[in-house]
Design goal:
10 helices; mainly alpha; single chain; two-stranded parallel sheet; Ferritin; 3% strand
Length: 286
């Protein structure tokens, strides 16, 4: 079986429509929304049942969770296969401890279960698979040739985002009086905390004697975190659609200063998006 399987070769059936992240960001309809007075940020405030678009916003988020679970399963499976067992510690040495492979195998089991739960939840919420588009950034992060960067990009950055999203959906289910949604999201949230904790633990173990490599990995994580703050979609402001789940991130091995950095990254992403929206309004007005 081939190693380092590229994102272009991922198998999908005709229900799935891929839209690259950069195309979504550069969608000209964003300029129209900005001209009409929108902040330009994705979403319209915190996800609560009283939002006019709450049903569609919740369904879109659930569909995004579903495709993320597929890619997380594929990524963890690739990590089990792509690297040889060994004690390689330097960049470019594709070796990992056997115990890391066991953790990734356990994660595959979890992600497969999450796929099944997410499919049933999507049906419960009235969504058909493929109704919303798929972007493949999670799997792209799982293609990094350095296992440490792969773990920080996927298990700490993107699975960390999953903690925030699952917590948001769990709270939405509770407020909306939907015990099925609340229970399922709470169950998956517990798994995500475990996955992020595995990433945190292996990052520190594999770079204990290589601080430059650790810093490269953390910088890669910061880049991924900024991309997936999506212009204020995730943050700590009251109107952020997805709130930073500090308590669960703490359980997953994040330190307080790391969460402060993430909150600052999200704030900067929001300010940049608002500046772009203001420029779009000015351009359309002229």
């Amino acid at each position: 079986m081939r190693k380092a399987f590229p994102v272009e070769d991922l198998a999908r059936d005709d229900r799935f429509v891929r839209v690259p992240l950069i195309e979504r960001i550069n969608d000209p309809r964003n300029a129209v929304a900005a001209a009409q007075g929108s902040s330009g940020r994705r979403g319209a405030g915190r996800l609560t049942p009283d939002r006019p678009d709450a049903p569609d916003a919740a369904r879109a988020l659930m569909h995004g969770i579903f495709v993320g679970e597929i890619q997380a399963l594929e990524g963890a499976g690739r990590t089990c296969w792509d690297f040889e067992v060994g004690s390689g510690n330097g960049e470019g040495i594709a070796e990992v401890p056997f115990e890391l492979k066991l953790d990734m195998a356990r994660q595959c089991w979890d992600e497969a279960r999450h796929c099944e739960i997410s499919i049933k939840l999507s049906g419960h919420m009235g969504t058909e698979l493929g109704e919303f588009s798929e972007n493949t950034f999670l799997y792209e992060a799982a293609c990094n040739p350095d296992p440490v960067l792969r773990l920080t990009g996927v298990n700490r950055a993107l699975e960390g985002l999953a903690i925030d999203v699952f917590n948001t959906m769990r709270e939405f289910g509770e407020i909306a009086g939907d015990p099925v949604l609340e229970f399922c999201e709470d169950w998956m949230l517990a798994d995500e905390v475990t996955h992020v904790k595995m990433g945190s633990d292996w990052l520190r173990k594999l770079t204990a004697n290589d601080k430059p490599r650790q810093e490269r990995a953390l910088e890669f994580q910061r880049v991924v975190d900024k991309l997936f703050s999506l212009g204020g979609f995730r943050g700590e402001e009251e109107d952020s659609p997805v709130r930073l789940a500090r308590r669960f991130r703490e359980l997953a091995g994040f330190k307080e200063d790391e969460m402060d950095t993430l909150a600052q990254i999200a704030k900067e992403a929001r300010e940049e998006m608002e500046a772009i929206a203001e420029a779009n309004r000015a351009a359309v007005a002229s």
